[in-house]
Amino acid sequence: MATLQDIGVSAGINILTAFIFFIVFAFLRLQPFNDRVYFSKWYLKGLRSSPASGGGFAGRFVNLDLRSYLKFLHWMPEALKMPERELIDHAGLDSVVYLRIYWLGLKIFAPIAMLAWAVLVPVNWTNNELELAKHLKNVTSSDIDKLTISNIPESSHRFWAHIVMAYAFTIWTCYMLMKEYETVANMRLQFVATEARRPDQFTVLVRNVPPDPDETVSELVEHFFLVNHPDNYLTHQVVYNANKLADLVSKKKKLQNWLDYYQLKYTRNNSQTRPITKLGCLGLCGQKVDAIEHYIAEVDKTSKEIAEERENVVNDQKSIMPASFVSFKTRWAAAVCAQTTQTRNPTEWLTEWAAEPRDVYWPNLAIPYVSLTVRNLVMNVAFFFLTFFFIIPIAFVQSLATVEGIEKVAPFLKFIIEDKFVKSLIQGLLAGIVLKLFLIFLPGILMTMSKFEGFTSVSSLERRSASRYYIFNLVNVFLGNVIAGAAFEQLNSFLNQSPNQIPKTIGMAIPMKATFFITYIMVDGWAGVAGEILMLKPLIIYHLKNALLVKTEKDREEAMNPGSIGFNTGEPQIQLYFLLGLVYAPVTPMLLPFILIFFALAYVVYRHQIINVYNQEYESAAAFWPDVHGRVITALIISQLLLMGLIGTKHAALAAPFLIALPVITISFHRFCKGRYEPAFIRYPLQEAMMKDTLERAREPNLNLKGYLQDAYIHPVFKGGDDDEDGDMVRKLENEVIIVPTKRQSRRNTPAPSRISGESSPSLAVINGKEV
């Protein structure tokens, strides 16, 4: 069990580590050859083309201006200077609202921390329950535990202080959540109303198009929308299964990188000896061949395969999926289509807002819609087993990451770990580091599961991964360590106690686990956040590519890997701290200052990264905020239920029932916010759409909207190439949308002029009047 000394040692090490990270970062960011790594956002926006040269001497590779090194923390106030409105224009609304999650944490927990330390810490400290338990019941505890609710005797009237504070914390948290929900909803509506024209504003994704023996998917989509949206339909682009083609394009890119590497190597060495490669596994064994000739041949071979596959995709009707991107003449028409049911059969002609083109996850558009339910079920079952079986190795390794666990497994190390400093190091750092290492591969696993489920946009993939990551943290990181860890530590007393005494032991042990979470916050939230600013992985990758592959400025730009805010990993981390703060605020207030430091440090670091480094992959206009709000509400309810159970184990029968109203109040508050603010995040108001359309028609009466939207949703493998073949393929796909040979014999379902034949279909009145 970690003591105050252990916490002090851990805090000192993590603060020193964070400080070292900041010093190293300050040195690296000043070097001109790192400029594209630490200011990549400005290069990608075209606002920076070379390292800034201030006063003093700046060489080509090393900054020789010694005065610039004296301001190694100058980036912190600089990160706070950019106004929020300017930051939205610079980085987008998603990034700004993501920062507001950290700011929300500060606004919630700063007053809670002051109130808890002013009221609850004196109430907890001025008791001797743990001292009596230590002598009479052989219960171990530390000085930190005297600040917790465990130090209050059973049936004490002092529990009323915790109940009153629980109400105060709930009311304040709900108030801040409501104000923030209102602010973000207004920011979203303002952003949508003022943002520039984008293809997704006019486009919906139509899925589960029913098969028709007389028409292709393209013909069927065109006829359906000409009939049901005759005044508003503009154009469409069918969805192709081009996954194999995308794999070939990716393969060619890798081969081209190897070819560039060997050509540069040969050119720079100025030798007559041509580079050699082996054809075996990973180039380590097998026949030796001329590397340049080998990769030239492989690139040519792959190029031919790509050309053949392109033709197959375009000409084979089986490659066309029963889905299409349908564009309309106005935003109002797109909103009506996206937010209404198209037919009496609710399983056909399913419409939803199309993601913006850079947000579309193209591989999943090739997944048949009917298989999505099965995939979702399979992944839910897989996630269930991943979550609940993962708790076994976590609990086991966590038990070993203690002084007692190490002595039990390796008794020969006892004389080393009994040293005061080493013991403090183990108890203050090891458990948090082990847990952090265990979670390294989890985001990748969860993202793979989300991709298998079939989500069609990167933003929805990240939101689903974030949701599962949050559940995993709740079960394994929080409940696993509180319940399983506490049970393991109290195993001997469990075996000697009667069943009715076990809940008491757990009730006393839960607040004692706060010391573990304090160490975890310092490892993950202090040193971990400070390490984020170093950008070590992008830095190494950039310099490797720059040395081995870069030939042109375009290559150098592609070598930059600025990354993004990483909503699927960052937001669950934030929510874990919300959970810990709300749970331990009435139980162990000592944890709150550590959480406040995390929120403040993370806000500054990520604001700097968003301004200078991150290049967001998509813009969803803060569509994720309802998830953020819901998870904070979940954390609040969990904290109330745990406090209710904890006080129940203390035999405070008169006080505990007064906590029952808290979850009811919180759930009612959530329902109010859901009805009042959530529609702004899931529906586009028709009034707003009409206003934006009217303004655009007044400003640009001659806008060629069809030309703007024509190739917006063509698969990336069909466009963006460097050769004429790619351009020809795009034109062929565009023409396929415009001129489609009709095979339908009857037009009973198409009483509208056909753009294909140019002839008018008989109207319903003519048909009813038998004038056919």
UniProtKB/TrEMBL annotation:
User: GO molecular function terms here?
Assistant: calcium-activated cation channel activity
- InterPro entries, sorted: Csc1-like (IPR045122), CSC1/OSCA1-like_7TM (IPR003864), CSC1/OSCA1-like_cyt (IPR027815), CSC1/OSCA1-like_N (IPR032880)
Which UniProt keyword terms apply here?
Answer: Calcium, Ion channel, Ion transport, Membrane, Transmembrane, Transmembrane helix, Transport
Which segments constitute the CSC1/OSCA1-like N-terminal transmembrane domain?
Answer: 7-180
Residue ranges under compositional bias (Polar residues)?
A: 748-763
Provide the membrane topology annotation.
Multi-pass membrane protein
Where does it sit, as one GO cellular component term? plasma membrane
Domain CSC1/OSCA1-like 7TM region, chain residue ranges per copy? 375-646
Please list the residue ranges annotated as the CSC1/OSCA1-like cytosolic domain. Answer: 201-364
Regions crossing the membrane: 12-30, 101-120, 159-178, 377-401, 421-448, 469-488, 576-606, 628-647, 653-673
Cited Pfam families: PHM7_cyt (PF14703), RSN1_7TM (PF02714), RSN1_TM (PF13967)
Domain of life (superkingdom): Eukaryota
Tell me where in or outside the cell this protein is found. Answer: Membrane
Report residue spans for region: Disordered: 743-772
Q: What family does the entry list?
A: Belongs to the CSC1 (TC 1.A.17) family.
> What is this protein's name?
10TM putative phosphate transporter cytosolic domain
